[in-house]
C-alpha cells in the first residue's frame, strides 16, 4: 500500500501504467507463441498414430512390393499402438525442454548481475570507534513546541 501511495502522491501513475502495459504486451506475445506451439503439439498428438500407420503400411506395400494380410496388418497395428505412447509424449517433452531453456536463460540473467557493494551504501563514521554522532540538533514534537531539546550533541561509541 505504501508503494501505491508513493506512486499516486508523486504523480507517477502514467509512467508506471506505460511500463506495465509494455511488459504485459511482451508477456502476451510470449504466451501466444506458447499456445501456438501447444496447438502444434496437440495436432501432432492427434494425427501421429494415423499418419504413422499409413506411412508404415504404404511403405510396406509400395516399396517392398509385399501383400498385406490380416495377420500382418493386425500385428503391425498392435506394435504401432505400443510405440504410439512414447511418440505422443515427444511434443510435450520438446515443449518442456524449450520452457526449461527459457527458465535457465532468466536465471542466468539474474545470476550474472553484479554484486552490490554494501560498503558503498553504508560507511562507518570516521574516528575512533564512533557508531553514532549527532551534532547541534534540535528535537521536538512540533515546530512550535515548548517542550523541546535544543542544541544537543550525542556521540555513541562502539561496544566490543
Topology:
Layout: H1 2-9, H2 13-62, H3 70-111, H4 118-121, E1 130-140, E2 148-157
Antiparallel strand pairs: 1-2
Helix pairs in contact: 2-3
Characterise the protein shown here.
- One of its GO terms (molecular function) is ATP binding.
- It comes from Panagrolaimus davidi.
- InterPro entries: ABC1_TM_dom, ABC1_TM_sf, ABC_transporter_C-like.
- By secondary structure, the chain is an alpha+beta fold.
- The chain folds into 2 domains: about 1-115, no CATH class; about 120-155, no CATH class.
- It contains 4 helices and 2 strands.
- It has helices spanning about 1-10, 15-60, 70-110, 120, and strands spanning about 130-140, 150-155.
- Strands 1-2 form a two-stranded antiparallel ribbon.
- A hairpin with a 7-residue loop joins strand 1 and strand 2.
- Helix 2 (about 15-60) packs antiparallel against helix 3.
- The longest helix is centred in the N-terminal third of the chain and has 50 residues, at about 15-60.
- The radius of gyration is 35 Å and the shape is rod-shaped.
- It starts with a helix and ends with a strand.
Amino acid at each position: 500500500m505504501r508503494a501505491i501511495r508513493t506512486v499516486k502522491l508523486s504523480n507517477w501513475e502514467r509512467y508506471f501504467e506505460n511500463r506495465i502495459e509494455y511488459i504485459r504486451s511482451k508477456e502476451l506475445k510470449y504466451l501466444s507463441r506458447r499456445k501456438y506451439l501447444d496447438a502444434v503439439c496437440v495436432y501432432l498428438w492427434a494425427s501421429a498414430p494415423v499418419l504413422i500407420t499409413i506411412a508404415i503400411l504404404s511403405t510396406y506395400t509400395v516399396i517392398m512390393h509385399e501383400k498385406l494380410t490380416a495377420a500382418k496388418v493386425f500385428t503391425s497395428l498392435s506394435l504401432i499402438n505400443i510405440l504410439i505412447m512414447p511418440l505422443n509424449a515427444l511434443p510435450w517433452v520438446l515443449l518442456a525442454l524449450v520452457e526449461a531453456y527459457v527458465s535457465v536463460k532468466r536465471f542466468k540473467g539474474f545470476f550474472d548481475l553484479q554484486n552490490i557493494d554494501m560498503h558503498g551504501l553504508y560507511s562507518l563514521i570516521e574516528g575512533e570507534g564512533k557508531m553514532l554522532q549527532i551534532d547541534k540538533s534540535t528535537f521536538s514534537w512540533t515546530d512550535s513546541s515548548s517542550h523541546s531539546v535544543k542544541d544537543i550533541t550525542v556521540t555513541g561509541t562502539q561496544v566490543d
